[in-house]
Write a structure and sequence with these properties.
alpha/beta, Rossmann fold, Arc Repressor Mutant, subunit A, 47% helix
Length: 351
């Protein structure tokens, strides 16, 4: 078997000459080079490239002038964004792809740029190497509370989280019938985005958000900005260790359960069951894996990345989650995908 070597500025790429090895190394390289694509996306968002292209196709020199970019390096960014299928080129003009128009233009309803820049680029990206040390057993101190011990980082992270969660929260409120319930207990509620969308859709529903003090300080601002402070209350505390506010008949755990090992999660679910009144409801929204096939891809990646925030992150399958809820006494358990390729929703009630 012969070996072919292709050299370039980044060094040699070695594969088998029959083509199979070359395809394999290309696939592996696309994973290894993934951070380059994300940085290109972040750079384009910071410049406002997609927002400018929402006005119509433009040449590279026109775009550079309007965005205040250096003309020559800017061409490399355009090439990267074109290769990533974020923009398209026809002749000497560039335009947004439909996906970029929908999610990367600042005034678009589905704009995700703030989330990508604030939570992913601004906070989580630099923390990811910690996940590698956790896997090697060299760092066991990473916890959600420790990660958010800096007020400035906390505000950036939670506001970024809010930008990314508002759409999924709205979808959750629309897709579930919450009319039988009067008070939502949002445990580990973060920015309050899910509580905000729930009380907006159901006028008779109130909510209380429980989270760490630094998070609550930011969530109070966000809820006040939504003019819902008269509908949503707050309580500081540790979801696992501290007493929960009384009087709720619906519990939400969003992006919470995957941060806990099975014994802790089983105790948390049993506690939720004991807390709820008869016919009380439980909603879980989180990353989870298929039990019978790989992925979902982005859910699996998030579960790895979450090790940088919580060293006790556990990759539960959908089947494991449903089984654990049943073991803790919940009935009428249903599960379904929520954010495509990323999260699932589990709903159940106490008998």
């Amino acid at each position: 078997m012969t070996r072919a070597i292709e050299t370039g500025h980044a060094g040699p790429i070695i594969g088998r000459s029959d083509g199979h090895g070359e395809a394999a190394v290309a696939a592996i390289s696309s994973i290894a080079y993934g951070f380059m694509g994300s940085q290109a996306l972040f750079a384009a968002l910071e410049l406002g490239l997609f927002t400018e292209l929402a006005e119509g196709p433009a040449r590279a020199d026109e775009l550079a002038g309007k965005l205040g970019a250096h003309p020559q390096p800017f061409r490399a960014l355009l090439a990267a964004c074109t290769a990533l299928h974020l923009i398209e080129q026809t002749g000497d003009h560039y335009r947004n792809t439909p996906a970029a128009d929908r999610f990367l233009v600042r005034h678009a309803r589905g704009y995700m740029g703030h989330y990508y820049l604030q939570q992913i680029a601004g906070t989580l990206y630099s923390e990811l190497p910690i996940a590698r040390t956790v896997v090697r057993g060299q760092s066991q101190a990473t916890t959600y509370a420790h990660f958010l011990d800096d007020p400035a980082r906390t505000e950036a992270f939670i506001r970024g989280q809010h930008a990314g969660s508002s759409g999924p929260a709205s979808l959750l409120a629309k897709s579930l019938d919450l009319s039988p319930f009067t008070r939502l207990l949002d445990l580990g509620g973060g920015s309050g985005s899910f509580a905000i969308e729930a009380v907006r859709r159901y006028p008779s529903l109130g909510a209380v958000v429980v989270d760490h003090p630094g998070v609550i300080a930011v969530a109070e601002k966000i809820v006040a900005e939504a003019h819902l402070q008269h509908r949503i209350e707050f309580a500081t505390g540790n979801v696992v260790a501290d007493t929960w506010p009384a009087g709720a008949d619906l519990i939400l755990l969003s992006y919470v359960v995957s941060s806990y090992q099975p014994e802790t999660l089983r105790n948390l679910l049993a506690r939720a069951h004991a807390y709820l009144p008869p016919s009380g409801g439980l909603i879980i929204h989180d990353f989870a894996l298929h039990g019978d096939r790989p992925g979902p891809r982005n859910s699996a990646l998030w579960l790895f990345a979450n090790l940088a925030i919580s060293a006790t992150t556990h990759p539960y399958t959908v089947t494991e989650m449903v089984q654990m809820m049943a073991e803790c006494g919940f009935v009428e358990i249903e599960s379904r995908p929520h954010i495509p390729d990323i999260t699932f929703v589990f709903v159940a009630r106490r008998r």
